[in-house]
Amino acid sequence: MFIMYKLEVENQFNKNIKILKANQDEEHESNEFSELSAKFGIIHQTITPRAPRQNVIVERKNRILKEMINFMFVSSGAPHNL
Q1: Is 81 within a domain?
Q2: Which 3 state secondary structure label does DSSP give 4?
Q3: Does some domain include residue 82?
Q4: Residue 37 within a domain
Q5: pLDDT value, residue 64
Q6: How far apart are CA 62 and CA 1, in angstroms?
Q7: Enclosing domain of residue 36
Q8: What's residue 26's pLDDT?
Q9: Concatenated DSSP letters of 18-62
């Protein structure tokens, strides 16, 4: 399954996967997956699902992006119904 994903990313975006962040589960912690990551030179990082610190960072980034978009709409003179 991972090889299909890797090929799709490379084909669609013409980029190589350098770092893969995934939840800590059996599929991503297996020796086979570790060997594939090492074979392709991919750094495998695990994240803790629903970790408060990670959620705070993501929420802050989303809020900043939303504020930037709102500012761009207001400063562009676009109609307020957008």
Answers
A1: no
A2: helix
A3: no
A4: yes
A5: 93
A6: 30
A7: 2-76
A8: 56
A9: -EEEEES-HHHHSHHHHHHHHHHTPEEEEE-TT-HHHHHHHHHHH
User: Which pLDDT score, from 0 to 100, does residue 3 have?
Assistant: 85
Number of domains in the chain: 1
Identify residue 68 by its one-letter amino acid code. M
Predicted confidence at residue 51, as pLDDT, reads 66
Q: Which residues of the chain have pLDDT under 70?
A: 24-29, 49-55, 82
C-alpha 77 chain-centroid distance: 33
Q: Quick one: which of 11, 46, 43, 10 has its CA closest to 28?
A: 46
Residue type, 9: V
Q: What is the dihedral of CA 23, 30, 45, 54, to 10 degrees?
A: 20
Classify residue 17 by burial, with Cβ atoms within 10 Å: 0-12, 13-18, 19+.
middle
Amino acid sitting at position 10: E
